[in-house]
Amino acid sequence: xxxxxxxxxxxxxxxxxxxxxxxxxxxxxxxxxxxxxxxxxxxxxxxxxxxxxxxxxxxxxxxxxxxxxxxxxxxxxxxxxxxxxxxxxxxxxxxxxxxxxxxxxxxxxxxxxxxxxxxxxxxxxxxxxxxxxxxxxxxxxxxxxxxxxxxxxxxxxxxxxxxxxxxxxxxxxxxxxxxxxxxxxxxxxxxxxxxxxxxxxxxxxxxxxxxxxxxxxxxxxxxxxxxxxxxxxxxxxxxxxxxxxxxxxxxxxxxxxxxxxxxxxxxxxxxxxxxxxxxxxxxxxxxxxxxxxxxxxxxxxxxxxxxxxxxxxxxxxxxxxxxxxxxxxxxxxxxxxxxxxxxxxxxxxxxxxxxxxxxxxxxxxxxxxxxxxxxxxxxxxxxxxxxxxxxxxxxxxxxxxxxxxxxxxxxxxxxxxxxxxxxxxxxxxxxxxxxxxxxxxxxxxxxxxxxxxxxxxxxxxxxxxxxxxxxxxxxxxxxxxxxxxxxxxxxxxxxxxxxxxxxxxxxxxxxxxxxxxxxxxxxxxxxxxxxxxxxxxxxxxxxxxxxxxxxxxxxxxxxxxxxxxxxxxxxxxxxxxxxxxxxxxxxxxxxxxxxxxxxxxxxxxxxxxxxxxxxxxxxxxxxxxxxxxxxxxxxxxxxxxxxxxxxxxxxxxxxxxxxxxxxxxxxxxxxxxxxxxxxxxxxxxxxxxxxxxxxxxxxxxxxxxxxxxxxxxxxxxxxxx
Length: 721
Known about the structure:
The protein has a single domain (about 5-720), classed as Beta Barrel (Maltoporin, Chain A). About 5% of the residues lie in helices and about 55% in strands. It is built from five helices and 39 strands. The strands form six sheets. The protein has a 22-stranded antiparallel beta barrel. The longest helix has 14 residues, at about 5-20.
């Protein structure tokens, strides 16, 4: 773990300040004015939704929890949800169009990390493509197995994106205008108002909309996106309220960038031609499109001071379209590029469900007790429409210095259009319960249990074979849970221990899994032990969290050692790691924050078919899993009108293949911003990202190097009335 970069240095510096003896710190008697108003990613005493159903704070939850609220999203200039989660401890996310919202966390990737929208999961990684951050109020992350909260999946952790909703407190109009490099732009508006001028209004409405676009940093790549959220909160009685929430998202990307070919000969480190850094080998009419509709009906009823219930009825409709030439390789002397893998696909997905939840506080054996119990019901349907004659073989060979990208429909065999291939229907019925019991004034016990009945039906509209039957059905009934203890050492510091379990699809996701992946197998299982601490120090000027964990995932599908044409449920992976996060108000004007995560992830049992032979990958690291990830921020209030800051992000090297023979190098990104408060309503922010113009692989897969954004500049104007 050779991490000698600025981000880690800043982290270590912050930690040294945190644990230094007070006698050696000259800042102890300092009175810090306005420190609590500084946006911070360390929020220990705010209620969170993702770590528990009981409305506990991060300090009360026996698990590693990261939160990015609206203040920190705006402070760090996050443009989309990917920017938000990359600031969280241990997360490394990328947005290759074919991988949706690809996430690596605690040694696990993709579908092994559950991504939720207002606590609702899509069970399909392609549905988690980054969304413009404007419509979101906060993002929360809980580490490790959390099936007991949200259902099947989540062996590595859960991320919850929480949309802005109408509220009774804020009466405001907000706006943003942003423009930057590569014609990147954003125009956004947000309004929250009471719908009457009465002294005691009963109805409140919120409307948020953002429109973003840009030419992209790769040649011919353009993107436009619209995100909208509208909600009405109605107080029907003093104890009964209803919220109707509507969301719409539209994303269109022309000539999506799928990665850059590796220079030959391909050694142990991925390299690309820097002179062709921005070349895009996709066809001219390549396209990715996504349209998403959300509808939620939320009913809240306060029965009495100790009992409440909430019912959430929801509908989701998403359509995703792909039309691209997606794979590129150099010839032997790197003079020509072979283009292949033509894909024409449509994914139609609908999710309908209802969640009923009852909360109750009481005395149990004379001890204060909090309860949450409820039922989940959902039907997740997805229909896949791939082109019936797509080609994975080379289509053409082009001169990278002089080539016509061509049209997708010039490719032989793709003019047949879309053909329905499979329809998946996954019905979930679940019951859950959670309890927090205060054993003593300092010691509390948190327990949770969830039972799921999963029924999966798959209809095959294509060619029927023994491994692709016309219809198959599978049923699973996982039981998952957790038990955790939190001990308050002092009012400012605690320690905790937790054991939790997960149930996970053996391969892929249930919304798209084939018969060969799940038709004959049980769900995989996962378990985690975690210990940690959360504390404040130096009279509240600093806060810190630490977590150590071990996660074991068992029984995922691997190639049969005796027959590489078959799969067996025999895989196992272990991840062990540590996570640190801290903040320190160094002076009344200077705030330092940092987080760092290290994970040792390896396969205990894993076989891969190579040229028809089953090869063991035991002891190897999963692809796209960095050992270390670190973030650091320094923010300085120059005067009441001016603020400036710098940041650094370090991501360790990752393997691009299961054999661990090909590696994408580590990288460090730096950024800076300056903000001028024009008046009490308006602020102007200038920001630079990737200050040193680092060339780096955001994601490594197969023979392609998915390059991250170069140095960019932007200016944003924010106003609020």
